[in-house]
User: Fold this.
Amino acid sequence: MYTIKDLYDLDHTLAKEYLEQFTYPWEALKGIKDLILALGPKLGDDYEEVSKNVWVHKTAKVFPSAYLGEPCIIGPETEVRHCAFIRGSALVGANCVIGNSVELKNVILFDHVQTPHYNYVGDSILGYYSHMGAGSITSNVKSDKALVVIHDGLENMETGIKKIGAMLGDYVELGCNSVCNPGTVIGRHSNVYPTSCVRGVVPENSIFKDNGVIIKKR
Assistant:
């Protein structure tokens, strides 16, 4: 339920060949910076290197108040809005929205991803057409700073990684002001209720409701 093949259609990201090397998506987090540095110089004339190691497609719209830290790639028709803060190591696909006061750090956003209002997304991979409601965030470090473990019912998968945010599959919908705890994995076409505190694995085609109740979509 939580492999890269389970979660993502790789035809909707520049990271396709990179991600194909791995089984689980969190295994790809460590190399995102190097991936962007390798991809950037090969992007062609449709992209401009607007500052050192920052490549922006000519059709993208970046508001003057947005900050683009290196390295990052901003894809075609993507909009980076007022006061967005891209700290670096962000690969943002086509037709995405990075909204007001949104912060990105060490992430891959597939095409058509929306993080439109006051979102924090760190050490995470967001699949095709996934959407984060206003104020929803990814928490990427445990309070005790221990290594992140992926919890799926009675099964626990050791990652050996300190910082993992959320792995959102294609077409995932996060409700407003929800929090994805470190190591959250949400399957394709699943929804999360507003103000939820999500942890562990949410299966595809499911609804995460109050108090961790998960039901299958009809």
In short: The chain has one domain: 4-216. The two ends are 19 Å apart (CA to CA). The chain has a mean pLDDT of 96. Residues 148 and 171 are 25 Å apart (CA to CA).
